[in-house]
Amino acid sequence: MNRYSRFGLWAALCLFAACSTKEEATPTPPSDQEIILTATTEGNDGTRTTLNADYSTVLWMPKESLSVFSGGKMVAFTSTNTEKASSAQFKGTLPEASGDKVIYGLYPYSAEASISKDVISTSLPAEQVAVAGTFGDNLFISVARTETYEMGFYNVCSGLRFMLDRSDIQTVTFLSNGGEPLVGKFSVGFDKDGKPIVQAVEEGSPEVTLSAPEGKTFEAGVWYYLVTLPTNLTKGYTILLEGEDIQGTVRSSTSIALNRNKFRSSKLDASRVDYKTVDDYDIENSGVRAYLENVDYSDDPDYTRSEVSNYPGTDKPNPVKLSWEGKASTVRISTSPDLSGSWDVSVSESPASIYNLTPGVRHFYSVLAADGTVLRESCVIPKGPMRMINGLLKNSRDLGGWKAGDKTIRYGKIYRGANLDDIQQDASKMDIIVNRLGVGVDLDLRGLPPGSQGGSGENNPWKPTDPVIYKNIKLWHYFVPSAQKYLQVDVSPGETADQYQYAIRCIINWLKDGKVVYFHCHGGADRTGTLAFLLEGLLGVSESDMSKDFEVTTYSNSIHRRNCDGGWFYRGMVMYIRTFAPGKTIQEQVTAWAKTRHSEDVDPLTDQEIQELKDLMLE
Length: 619
Known about the structure:
- The chain has a seven-stranded mixed beta barrel with strand order 2-5-4-3-6-10-11. Strands 9-16-13-19-20-23 form a six-stranded mixed beta sheet, with no helix packed on it. It has a five-stranded mixed beta sheet with strand order 30-33-36-34-35, sandwiched between helices.
- It has two domains: 13-276, no CATH class; 391-617, Alpha-Beta Complex (Protein-Tyrosine Phosphatase, Chain A), CATH 3.90.190.
- It has eight helices and 36 strands.
- The longest helix is centred in the C-terminal third of the chain and has 20 residues, at 493-512.
- By secondary structure, it is of the alpha+beta class.
């Protein structure tokens, strides 16, 4: 059954007929002797094929393999049929005789499968590949138990059968809103009639994804099958359909049962699916996206040019647009399928603009009328990767989304931006920082002399009852050993460098405590940009991307900062960092700087701390 063939069309559910097994005298399993097992499946009685509108026939393919268990040991048996067959003979050698007269079978063969007493352990994958008109190879798991050489296999699994009315969908994901496992490692036993019962699921996943054949798209008007374990979905389900420039959602909070040996059937046409085009979920404004995608500073190691002005834009992100029918008052949003931990956004007319969602993360939502009536249940996955934050002061954004070698910086862990001095006077800003971003630490980097442009810090804007820790670490714009005429003359580069080390150590410890960090200076440009540069360097972001992130500050109507135009010293800071490991990569140079002692007041960062930062921030 590497490939199952089916005949006839199913209406609402496909249900295989029960299998009957011929009665024979109980054999004494020989050891070291080749035997023949005859295998049938539900829907076949071993002598004829039953076809009608309600049943499907499963045929054995040539050279199929079974896991056969006897005496607690497993061996492989291989089919001898040369054509598709409803009943097939499997040849193999049973393990050494143990006195156990019961033989167990598992399809498909799995070298990792095992048995304990009469319970078989195997697994069902979360990533499946579609086959038009059927399900993929080695998916629809079946088991058998017999005291003869006749093995009647019963199907263990359930699943979803669907048909699309469009041909641009690449993946279909089925997930349980209540977190019930749909796939994973599981054990299956038998009831008194020899039919399978899933007893436990380990390392289970509440979702399973079916990819279109050959990495292309699903055909319209064709049935496809996604295989799951049988279970009850107490809080309903969500079906996500994704293409290159399209997202679709079918969502229901009504409880349903996924019964063994049955597929739920659904025609996913436009009347059922909430489709969104890319313009509705792309949160990156066009100028920033073009700049990030088209500019590469790798060929400019001396920092002689700046290209950000060639890609006009702002630091204001695009919203996600949500639509519905009827008079709404609230959109309830959560990253959990059951809407736990949700937050509410007041709305009126459709469509509504929703800000500050996270790129690549599923956001499940319900649109509610004033009386609580659900007008729409759906899901959206914003597209980034630059996550600018709307509703704070200018130049605020998530540090996540940057590639770091073969990994990516996680979103929602560290934010960089401008000051929060007016947080108590702005309820909307307070809501964004505390409730939407979940910030637990306000790290203020301001340390200029009192009265200087950029502020001195030490002005804690938080009340003792607020859930945010305030920390001020006095930093200067950069730590370059020359051209610092606007700094106090008695401040040496070393004193600035060790405070950056101290700031990084504090961030690592806060992250270990599960806290989200927002760091800033006055405008979120220079001191903030330098700390971001150092963090990204330790994490392995390319120098070109580190430079682009620093320069994105320009979109907040600030001056260029990559080169020396305007008297800024970003280039000088980079050249200073390069002195710590000349000729090495920027990651090695930043790491060497971080591990160097710059004063007697602050210990350098250790390899363990740097690795902890990577473990906490990279995925």
